[in-house]
Amino acid sequence: MSVQLEGRLANPDRMARPDFCPIERTFKVVGTRSAMLLLREAAYGTTRFDDFVRRAGLTETVASSRLRELVDAGLLTKEPYREPGQRTRYEYVLTPAGADLMPTLVALAAWGAEHLPHQPSPSYAHAGCGAPVAARIECAAGHAVTMDQLVASA
Amino acid sequence: MSVQLEGRLANPDRMARPDFCPIERTFKVVGTRSAMLLLREAAYGTTRFDDFVRRAGLTETVASSRLRELVDAGLLTKEPYREPGQRTRYEYVLTPAGADLMPTLVALAAWGAEHLPHQPSPSYAHAGCGAPVAARIECAAGHAVTMDQLVASA
DNA sequence: CGGCATCCTGTATGATACTG
DNA sequence: CAGTATCATACAGGATGCCG
Questions:
Q1: Are B75 and B117 members of one domain?
Q2: Are B70 and B38 in contact (CB under 8 A)?
Q3: Is position B61 within any domain?
Q4: What is the CATH number of the domain that holds B53?
Q5: Do A125 and B139 touch (CB under 8 A)?
Q6: Same domain for B111 and B95
Q7: Which of residues 47-76 of B touch strand C (CB under 7 A)?
Q8: Same domain for A63 and A79
Q9: Are residues A86 and A38 in the same domain?
Q10: What is the pTM of this model?
């Protein structure tokens, strides 16, 4: 059984155009290991530079430039805040656009958990029922979509 | 409204360990632009080397080494086939493991289509009803899972 | 057609040291 | 704490040419 979309594209070759494919455009913004790890940390609630560096296991240099890029791209905001009696600090917080990337992160995590088993490994579950989660393709009408039901159009 | 998992992790710092995070492990395998583009083409039904090169817009060198890596990682198979009277050729076909990565590709594509608009851009829809598709997080019990219902455990 | 060999550039990342 | 500056390494990717 091969999983294909053969014949469903009017002109597959047009997909080759560099900035035409949304996958490629997305990869331009978050296609680095460091960006993904920083977004993972932001989703976990990390907001401070030092915590990003330590928890994502990045150097300050990498974390600094990548965080700036993510802020510029609108995935994170850098906001000043001041607790009473403390100096001003900055916190990095996910924007709605950044939060929209979470299905992607979950999809990556679910694939790795299933196909690249490793001990120990964190797993992700539904708080309501405890069942493990995965990403699925669904249409706006709520139907589950399998690969052979997926069509692309320009 | 911030989308966070704050406090849901027993020890966020443990996530920093290099090969502990499934996102990072997955990225080791498919964390390059070329790998994603080749998998996209495989999903579109591309099977021959030359078509991969042209449609993904890669050089032969890159396509060659990346295809080999994807075969070694079990995402593609390289199989000989021979049409009557023709010489033996090879075709690259998605394995079930490779097909399992499709939700990830759709998630990346959906994010780019929404947040990095570009004309023209292909869109993806459900063949059955024509509605656009997106990746959704779902638990094994079939419940839709929102970010704040997502828990991680080691 | 389906590659491999070679050379080259850009960038992602790391290591270390320093600053306000 | 939150970075910047500098140096060094590894790898992705492009360009060109050759081969069975």
A1: no
A2: yes
A3: yes
A4: 1.10.10.10
A5: yes
A6: no
A7: 48-51, 60-61, 64-65, 67-68
A8: yes
A9: yes
A10: 0.91
Q: Which domain holds residue B131?
A: 1-18+101-154
**Protein residue minimizing CA–C1' distance to D4:** A61
CA–CA separation, B120 and B17 (whole Å): 41
Cα A112 from chain centre? 14
**Searching chain B, which residue's CA lies closest to the CA of residue A44?**
B5
Residue at minimal CA–C1' distance from D2? Answer: A49
What confidence tens digit (pLDDT) does each residue in A51-104 have?
A: 999 999 999 999 999 999 999 999 999 998 887 777 888 999 999 999 999 999
- Size of the A and B interface in Cβ pairs below 8 Å: 330
Q: Could you say which residues 102-131 of protein chain A have a Cβ atom less than 7 A away from any atom in strand C?
A: none
Structural element, H or E, at residue A77:
strand A76-81
* Same domain as B147, residue B129: yes
Least confident piece of the model among A82-86, B89-93, B122-126, B135-139: A82-86
CB contact under 8 A, A43 and B147: yes
Tell me, what amino acid is at A112?
G
**For residue A8, is it within any domain?**
yes
A28/B13 Cα distance (integer angstroms): 28
